[in-house]
Predict the 3D structure of the following.
Amino acid sequence: MRVREWDPATAPAAEVESLLRTLNGILEVDMPEDPRWQSTMFREYLAGTLPGERRLAWMAEDGDGVALGYASVLLTAGIGVLEVLVHPKHRRGGVASALLTAAARRVHAEGCDSIGVEVVGGTPGEGFYQASGFRCAFEEVRNVLDLSTVDWLRLGDMARGVGSGYRIEYHPGGPPEEMY
């Protein structure tokens, strides 16, 4: 196994596809109800940042160049926000630790004092991060909407309606002073 810094924006298409297969393999095991990643816009998702942010990424691969895992750090406001993903077939073999080590060294060299991580509760990542010294700062509830179950007509009616007790007003040039 080797770990190398990796730029999803310029990586060959075969590497991006290999990572896509790895991430979908993770979803199959860890979050089977979640939709699978598609190749459309996947590269853009991996490389995307907001103004003032920078993303660093690493790829762990076997001798044939197959993605075993991936790490990404979003540098923002003095903290590195980490994501480490390892295919289930390659867990407990040092892949995640090697990716975490590479990321932590680089985040420290970039001048950040801490690393944050978001991990889905109940997945193997939760135990990995705890064993690596991370502590839970807060828990977040995650919801997924299956669009095939949406009652689009009802939703449209709701969107067109104005809630009870509200009225819609338009003030050309802005609201009058007494509304401030």
Notes: The two ends are 62 Å apart (CA to CA). The mean pLDDT is 86. The longest strand covers residues 67-76. The domain at 2-142 is CATH 3.40.630.30 (Aminopeptidase).
